[in-house]
Amino acid sequence: MFENMEALEQACMGCQQCRLAADRTNLVFGTGNPHADIMFVGEGPGQQEDLQGKPFVGPSGKLLDKMLAAIDLDRNVNIYIANMVKCRPPQNRDPRPDEEDVCIRWLREQVRLIRPKIIVCLGRVAAQRLIDPNFRVTRQHGEFILRKGVYLMGTYHPSALLRNPANKPAAFDDFLALRAKALEVDAADIDALRADLAKNPPLT
Description:
By secondary structure, the protein is α/β, with parallel strands linked by helices. It has a single domain (5-198), classed as Uracil-DNA Glycosylase, subunit E (3-Layer(aba) Sandwich), CATH 3.40.470. It contains 8 helices and 6 strands. It has helices at 5-13, 47-52, 59-70, 97-114, 124-130, 137-140, 158-163, 168-199, and strands at residues 31-32, 38-42, 79-83, 118-122, 144-147, 150-155. The chain has a 6-stranded mixed beta sheet, sandwiched between helices. The chain starts with a helix and ends in a 5-residue tail after the last helix. 37% of the residues are buried.
């Protein structure tokens, strides 16, 4: 285990444990607020991400940023973004199960350190690994499940929306549901705090 995100990132940057490391330009660790309540997880870096070392910076990233802004979220302020694998798969293919198996320890540590209240899986690859091996985005997008105190939700990957714009309204509905869930979780936290204060009033 690592004490903080900086130590985790430094260790991750030296990773050579799977075939993807051999051809990477940059390892793409993650970006955002390390204390965020909401975490987004994609599948893996694309070409632009590999070149810049940051997640979701290509055309799909621009679309994601627009959708985030519409519900008052910002990658530099109140969310954290990471991927299932930290290095770009060749020709942007899906990460292979053995590559995910090696890399998921980094993601698990990110989740442990961030302690998000909500995790949003962007696309089938992340949703099938983190939510359900049989997850179908077209059928189950926007549904929240509670696991170990964390809400998980799968939605369309932004690159899939660029290929099929007809799904954008459904994806935006998912983001609206995310905003509502975040407000609900915040309200629950406030109610729990009030209940605790009622039982244990502070000294005056």
